[in-house]
Amino acid sequence: MGKLNSKDRIILAIESSCDDTAAAVLKNTSVLSNIVANQSVHEKYGGVVPELASRAHQQNIVPVIHQAMREAGVSANQLDAIAFTAGPGLMGSLHVGVSFAKSLAMAWDIPMIEVHHMRAHILAHFIDDEANKKPEFPFLCLTVSGGHTQIVKVSSPYKMEILGETIDDAAGEAFDKAAKVLGLPYPGGPLVDKNARLGNPKRFDFPHPKIKGYNYSFSGLKTSLLYFLRDETAKDPEFIQKNLNDICAGYQRAIVSFLMSKLKKAARETGITHVAIAGGVSANSELRDELKKMEEKLGWNTFIPRFEYCTDNAAMIGIAGYYELLAEHFADFNVSPRPRYDFSMGTY
Ligand code: KG4
Ligand code: ZN
Predict the structure, then answer these.
(1) Which end of the chain has fewer CB within 10 Å, C or N?
(2) Ligand 1 pocket check: which of 16, 186, 311, 343 to mutate, most ligand atoms within 8 Å of Cβ?
(3) How many CB atoms lie within 10 A of CB 7?
């Protein structure tokens, strides 16, 4: 683990808000280990089945934490705190992580820190990483995941303000639901991305939703894909198989250009030019490319996390926990999961 000095903080972090069981150990802002167990059990259902997710977390959590501690070369008596995802997320899934964090904190007599999952996605930008520079405050962050789509103004690790968000489906849901009707397994986002790279985005055009301000809406886009496929497969039952790459490319282009249009508007109107992306959908290759292009086009400084810090992971919970530890924000033993954890809670 290297040398410790008195200011070093070692944190064990646990993430179990949805369908990935994850644990990480951080020394200050450096990641010593970062383990994720994905749950393949949901693939055939086209979405996460909450009951199966909790059960898989129960099975995975001990080996995942064990491996994270072993790889980090850290023992329980070296830990300064245990950080865990309190929410938002699935009640049953969160329960597993929260209860486990409580038991460890009690057994090892160390403080607990509750972390907001979406704020952690944003703070992943501050993980020590040779490959990545860090954004300066204030910066804008487009957080795009399976459950959220937000443009956030980040003024400090503690002060974050939502400027706009989706009024219905999240961007990740728009990918996953499209994948489902296209016959691709869950989670479909990475597969739509992969097929889109081989397709022509101009062949099929999908509408650009018209929504005020910095808000988003993706349900209309999903419905337009549904009607388009219904009409085309009525004419040719093999339409999807024959045109999969072009459909994915056109649909992904619609999502990414919509995401970017509101982000550009926010940057223009706030005058903020440090712009980041976070959350599972920030792994999308077209979104990453489009953001990067803005460096030349608009003079932005752009920040894109490494792939393993985009999708759900515990290293991001660890870095968020680190900032909470510095501010001495600890949780009580009566803490319970917060499936609808309000984003503004935790703003100081
Ligand atoms: O942040 P995340 O791992 O979990 C949540 O907090 O929801 O995000 C998961 C979402 C899923 O909808 C998944 O399809 C999407 O991120 N995703 C992608 C890509 N990789 C993951 N969407 C588009 N392109 C990708 N390459
Ligand atoms: Zn997430």
Answers:
(1) C
(2) 311
(3) 6
